[in-house]
Queue: 3 jobs
Job 1
Amino acid sequence: MAPSPLKRKRTGSECTNQPNKGKRLILKIKIPRPFLLTLGLQIQSTETKNKLLSIANEVALDLSRTTKWSSYHAWKSVSSLRATDEAGQFAEYEQLWTTPLPYGTCVDHAYASHRELRRKLLEIPELAHFASIVQLLGAYRKSDETGKAWRAKEPYHALAALILNDSIIVVDVTAHPTAFLLHVGQEFGTLTRMEFPNRKKSPVFRYSSAFGENGEPVLSNCEKDYREDYKQISYEDALRLIKFPNARRTVSVPAQKRSKTSRSVRESPKNAGAANVTVSRRVEEILGETHMPGRKEIYFDYFLLAPSEKLMYVQTPRGYFTTWAKISIDFMKKSLGLLVPLADWLEKPEQEHIRHQLTKLNFPMRQGGIQCYIFLDLTEKRKLSQRVEFFSRLCATMCQMSSVEVDQLIRDTNGGQDPILWKGYAILPPGDENIPSRKQNNAPRKWVGGM
């Protein structure tokens, strides 16, 4: 008779020692909770998740109110770094964002979110241990727009996230004004923004979460044409791989062109044996080239007191968040574009004099759907003084920019030179309150709330 199986008293860290009678052996292992906490795999209740989401939401809303996305300001700030070595530039740039600046890009927003979320969690004793699992994540694309599989070696987007045991809390201020909780198997789509005509649409991030190889939740962005996986990244790597290369990206422009005449002799194409024909044509020869910054853009997102009539928005505790205006800067063409809403602003009866001035000053405009694209060409000298002045006031009003900021923007677009000498500002009818004078830097607007 076979001996009876050995029976032992089970402890919390031991498995059951039972005979295998042709059935699947099931190991039950109980890991002490303190060990789970050290791994950052603590089990969270629904109440705890709601508290964490509420704190992350405050961080996201505060940053959405105080900072905006701008590749123009990214170029300015990175170009102005005084340090010559990489480590010195990292330290200098990090010092700039100790307090969030008014303008930044995804790395700046992710870094500010990461810092602020950790700070708030450390101030709450029962939630302080979660601060250690707040991460910076970088997006690595796994397939291109055609669906062809490939693996990117460098990330192109960054965000902050709190990785829990079965879910992820995401703070991506660049794409969405609020934080959101993604359980494994769920999806979340970010805000759709208005875009300039004939431009590639701004990305709408469709985040999803699944368990990774190690059993932890993994964040992905799954669009119909491509897929991106998010991995932890250091702030230094985010600066080196995302922020600095994008800010320093340039385009090649011919520095000088020379036209010359090219002559060739060939037989007459009509009559065989006829006299030969001399063919002349003008050929442009490029003599060297230069590099200048690529096209830059600034998004002006605001919290409205009432929902927009046509624009896409997100309802938040602070108001209705939407992209109200957008500026595009083309250094090569020395031109600026301002994108404004049609139904929500330009087509309203009280803006009739604005439409009149745009027509009177021969502003090229493209209207499409919910928006109007107003174009300022600094190489067109006809009525340039009036057009620059009107465009400056329009930007100051729509974008809450000071006259100093707008003037600097126009000078940078014009290669650092003033396109005109300012001679006066009497363009609009006296007493007009909709377009402030250049001395009224940031006049408040009734439609902006939660500021």
Note: The chain is about 25% helix and 25% strand.
Job 2
Amino acid sequence: MSRSPEHPTSHPAPPDREAQSPGGEPSAAQAQAMLAQAAGAARTLPAPVPAVLICYGILCAVGTFGTLGMHLAPYMTTPPGGLSPTVTILILAFMWIGAAIIAGMVFRERWRRGLSTRWLVYMGVWAVLWVLGMTLGGTMLGMFIAPAFVVPFVIAVSTEAAKARDARQAQQAGAGR
């Protein structure tokens, strides 16, 4: 393994370094070695996170903090001529829901991955918790509803991690044949 003096942790030099063509382009053997190295590195990269998971995380966070805001809204004073705290909380929550939708649109090439029955179930659970949080957030139940948004999100992350792990193992098993 050769290391450059100025970068003691540099990567090993490709094979046949000395046999490089005069124009500085790699030889056929070097190109093949570099392609093999790149393929090996690509197999170790984690799968990209589906955009729906990012959006769902934003929605769950908005649900938690929106419910807590609704719980605290009755204790806040309304400024003269200003919006009530409840309306302010709803406006801010809807702004973050819009941010979740925009995030999905930005990452739309990965949007379809994850849109299956389980995501519809997760969204249904989120919608039920949202309605409960916005209607019962001002009561003591709001303090129990707010952290409940974490449960479907943790389940969604765990499910996606298991799916990515299974896909990686299947790919490694296919490459090992």
Note: Helices lie at 28-44, 51-72, 85-106, 117-136, 142-145, 150-176.
Job 3
Amino acid sequence: MGLKSTLGNAFASLLLLSAGGLTLWGLWLLVESLWVGVTEIRILAVMFSFGLAMSTGFTGYFIRKALAGQVMPTSFDRSIAYRGGQGGL
């Protein structure tokens, strides 16, 4: 395994781990809001934590897929369906 894939996998794993931690933090804030009471700061913190968890999770997932070579290339072959004027009735 090369240095690029090793560092990339380590970074992607760190992103996925942080997404899990942010999700747990958001759940903790939800439980605390139900237990103690809802405040504006807690609502914003819950939205922030779940949004950042989704962003870091998707980014980590995409980086791992890209390093494995399982991402669709940008110059993929277009079928006949996308060529206007050919086929039809």
Note: The mean pLDDT is 86.
